[in-house]
Amino acid sequence: MRLDALREGDRVVSATVDGSLTTDEVSLLSIAKPGAGAASAFLRIIVEGGHALNVTAEHHLPVGSTCCRTLAKAKEIVAGQSVWVYEGGGAAVARTVVRVQPVHNHGLHSPVLASGTFPVVDGVVTAFDRIESVTLASYALQPVLAACKATGTCHSVKRLHAFLSGRELSDYIA
After folding, report:
1. For strand 82-85 and strand 60-62, is the pairing parallel, antiparallel, or unpaired?
2. Which residues does residue 110 pair with via DSSP β-bridges, in sequence order?
3. Alpha-carbon torsion 153, 157, 160, 163, what sign?
4. Facing residues of 122 across strands?
5. Given this model, what pLDDT does residue 39 score?
6. Whose CB among 36, 70, 110, 174 lies 3.0–4.6 Å from 64's, allowing a Cys bridge?
7. 65 and 15 in contact (C-beta within 8 Å)?
8. What is the pLDDT of residues 143-160, one digit of tens each?
9. 137: domain range?
10. Is 105 exposed, middle or buried (0-12, 13-18, 19+ CB in 10 A)?
11. What is the pLDDT of residues 17-41, one digit of tens each?
């Protein structure tokens, strides 16, 4: 499914902190700005095996010899470094970055997953924020979402998240 088609409640392939593949639910805190211009620098990360991912320079990805405890921003990733990809098995596998190049693109999308797992986008394991935020989401996001839905306060949760992350309410998924 295309990122710009994701809606709250959709299930997507994702990786757990140990690299096991699973599915997780797209939450109401996901970012979806399909009309956003190229205000941020976009990069195309090309990985051995034919994987390629277009992301903003500030987007986080799991890197290193074990998935998925260490994250780097896309702008910090260089050829020769390992990122994690999904190739159809039960766990993500490390693959070497072949090239990182600037690209022209538009739209900002970042699926924040309800169980705090790592979304797989175009076959590459990504992260919706810093490791501290992803870890916190893995423990607390599902109860927070359940509580706000039960009490009708999800708009307030979005407003608080927007304030804390420097976002606008219009940045969030519909």
Report:
1. unpaired
2. 31
3. negative
4. none
5. 55
6. 70
7. no
8. 999 999 999 999 999 999
9. 3-171
10. middle
11. 999 999 999 999 998 887 766 555 7
Q: Are 139 and 116 in contact (CB under 8 A)?
A: yes
Looking up residue 133, the CATH number of its domain turns out to be: 2.170.16.10
Return the structure tokens found at 124: 């590459």
Per the CB < 8 A criterion, the answer to whether 119 and 111 are in contact is: yes
| Residue-wise pLDDT tens digits, 68-127 | 999 999 999 999 999 999 998 899 999 999 999 998 877 778 899 999 999 999 999 999
Angle at 117 between CA 11 and CA 164, to 5 degrees: 105
Cβ proximity of 164 and 144 under 8 Å: no
Domain count within the chain: 1
- Specify the 3-state DSSP secondary structure of 5: helix
CB neighbourhood size of 85 (10 A): 22
**How far apart (Å, rounded) are the C-alpha atoms in residues 103 and 115?**
31
Selection from 162, 72, 55 nearest residue 108 by Cα: 55
